Amino acid sequence: MTAAPRQRRAAERVQGLLIMLPWLAERQRVSIHEMAKTFQLSVEELSQDLTLAGLCGTPPYSPLELIEIFFDENEVWVEIPNVFNKPLRLSVAEAFALRAVADTALALPGAANSAALGSAIRKLNELTAIDDALVIENPHDPLLAELAHFCDINARVSLDYFSPTTNKSTSRSVVPRRVWLSGEHWYLDAIDLGINEPRVFRVDRMSALKDSGEVVNAETLPALADEPGFHWDAQAERVTLHLQPSAHWVAERYPVYSQRKLADDVLEVVLPVTSAPWLGRLLVRAGNAAVVVSPEKYATLGAKTAANILSRYS
To answer: Domain named WYL: which ranges (predicted)?
Structure first.
């Protein structure tokens, strides 16, 4: 019986490529089996990563600027564009922006043990004079730090979670796996042990967080998607909206199946919807700048939701 393929996160694959490519560039041509063994990958996994590396390069991403990697069942060989051999020279503005982004990333939950990023910041400080001039202030939230710790140790925790759809809180037993930021809100990817499936929880809707003292073996848990975010399944309903320019933020903030520009700068988007109340609140926020094209049952949902909200204050 063939073993199931190992789940690897995108970040893990990219980090591996950053190590493999200089190693390969120094040797030019190597045995594919030797390279797989060196980096503790199967030949199939290595082939997938090398294919991904072939899409890396510099603008305008023409064949002359892309990394050319060739491999067959026996060997791997590489041709690195000359632009990668030139010393990297940053302007003061570029160095400042890079330092600001790096400092901010290092302060995010889960990044405390990022030795590579910390080392890069120290080297950047040695080459610039912005060390004392740049101060990054990140809001400190003890809950985020606690969740990041639970993610690191695969702790089983209990929490109460509020659902705006039902207007009720329910108790959950979960294993936190990943904390991430989208727009103005923090989210937690966790395994809901009640159904043994990955679920996304908005952090500001969580309360009564309690550590059970139990640590769960991560290998027994269902795998998460490679990247954090909202991953919709086939059960999600497809809703088509026409958005005026003032509502184009909908396509920027939320995942969409497709989008296309129409006349008068109207944007047509098809987005996944799993909750009519959620869609109603979205339509209220967008106002008259968003029109439901299909399905027809949602055509007046925005107006009905607005009326329900107003009735609470009457």
So the answer is: 143-210
